[in-house]
Design a protein that fits this description.
CATH architecture: 3-Layer(aba) Sandwich
Oligomer: single chain
Largest sheet: 8 strands, mixed
Distance between the termini: 33 Å
Structural class: alpha/beta
Mean pLDDT: 95
CATH superfamily: Vaccinia Virus protein VP39
Radius of gyration: 18 Å
CATH class: Alpha Beta
Order of helices and strands: HHEHEHEEHEHHEHEHHE
Helix content: 40-55%
């Protein structure tokens, strides 16, 4: 592995509890609810074979297994793979790099990339991961890829009262290069514009690409309302608006995460 990959493994092994991420703050709960809604809308029916690339500790994979899908998970972080394999229900899981999958050609009906792309800071690496996903997906099958919006961090900092001068300077820098500074928080990451992930999916070979905003335009309102008297009402409204405006071009980039779905060409 390269140094960036080693740093990412260290971050998720020593410093961050991925298995607890989707049950905490409003943004994370919105991400879980809306990603599951989108997967139910997009994936073929239960029984389909699904590869979850960069599937972390297996939260999405377990939900899909429980819904009747045949799921295999791969992740760069050995600790994640162990947690996924030992969860309930257990998930078939192994360590692998999204850029060099161990799976055979045309082996899956659908492939998920819900984590790797925003940890690959260089475009050629992201294209390689997408091409690997395409390679292992049957012709006509679906590839679904998540990225972090270019504007997620600054919007989050503003909604939670943390946008100081230093973070405002970082927001200005992100406008031009999209590369996260690990010293500010998180780890090595690249933050996308909606048109970028569309272009990358098409450049890798996908067709019929549609990009969805995951958390919707009101996720920052849900964060600002957290622990207040209106938190439940605002959260419910944020879920409704996220679904209503899921693929509205003028609003998708206001989401913290973007979800791109495309088809593998029939060869």
């Amino acid at each position: 592995m390269d140094q960036h990959s080693n740093d990412i493994v260290d971050y998720y092994t020593q410093h961050y509890r991925e298995d607890q991420r989707l049950t905490g703050r409003p943004q994370a709960r919105l991400e879980w609810i809306r990603t599951m809604q989108l997967l139910r809308d997009l994936l073929p029916g239960p029984g389909a074979r699904v590869l979850d690339i960069g599937g972390g500790t297996g939260e999405y994979a377990r939900a899909l297994v429980a819904a009747g899908y045949q799921v295999r998970l791969v992740d760069l972080v050995p600790h994640h793979v162990t947690q996924a394999a030992n969860g309930h229900p257990p998930v078939e899981a192994r360590v692998a790099d999204a850029r060099a999958l161990p799976d055979a050609d045309d082996d899956y009906d659908a492939v998920l990339l819900l984590g790797p792309l925003y940890h690959l800071v260089h475009r050629p690496d992201r294209l390689q991961a997408l091409r690997e996903a395409i390679r292992v997906t049957r012709p006509g099958g679906l590839v679904v890829a998540a990225v972090i919006s270019r504007f997620a961090g600054p919007l989050d900092f503003a909604a939670t009262g943390r946008l100081d001068e230093r973070l405002l300077d970082e927001a200005r820098a992100l406008l031009s290069d999209g590369v996260n500074d690990p010293q500010i928080g998180f780890t090595h990451a690249y933050f996308h514009r909606a048109e970028e992930i569309t272009d990358e999916c098409r450049a890798a070979g996908l067709t019929d690409v549609v990009v969805h905003g995951v958390e919707g335009p009101a996720w920052t309102a849900a964060e600002a309302a957290a622990n207040g008297p209106a938190q439940d009402t605002v959260f419910a409204a944020a879920v409704d608006l996220a679904r209503l405006y899921s693929s509205e071009p003028a609003l998708i980039s206001s989401s913290a995460h973007l979800l791109a779905a495309g088809r593998v060409p029939v060869r």
